[in-house]
Specification:
Number of helices: 5
Structural class: mainly alpha
Number of strands: 3
Strand content: 5-15%
Helix content: 40-55%
Strand order of the largest sheet: 1-3-2
Radius of gyration: 15 Å
Shape: globular
Order of helices and strands: HEHHHEEH
Length: about 120
């Protein structure tokens, strides 16, 4: 019965960061308008791959409920200089990968999504 459907658990910021870096390394298209990351697309991918959505419930219904840790994860990569946020607060859902870090995203770092330290 749809009325008794429980919302999916919200991922932690660490889980969102792991999923974000995993998605970027895989080359999966989650971007729009010349930006490599559109957070709504990323969260939609998360819902499709990690959550069982009952029949009759749209994936978009879950995106807004689950987006907060993905904002935090994207912002942490912006602070490190790995992502660049969109030009306006509304456009923060759009992020660009900084060219100096494309290599980092392409390297296999395991499931942690941790950023390598400089030698």
């Amino acid at each position: 019965m749809l009325g008794n459907t429980q919302p999916p658990p919200t991922p932690t910021e660490e889980q969102a960061l792991d999923f974000l870096t995993e998605t970027l390394r895989s080359g999966e298209n989650v971007g729009r308008n010349n930006y490599e990351v559109y957070l709504s697309e990323l969260v939609g991918r998360y819902v499709r791959l990690r959550i069982t959505v009952p029949p009759g419930i749209a994936i978009a219904d879950h995106v807004e409920k689950l987006i907060t840790p993905f904002y935090a994860a994207a912002w942490s990569l912006c602070r490190l200089g790995d992502l660049r946020p969109g030009p306006t607060p509304h456009a923060f859902r759009l992020c660009s990968v900084c060219s100096r870090d494309v290599r980092w995203l392409a390297e296999a770092l395991g499931a942690t999504g941790s950023r390598p330290t400089s030698d």
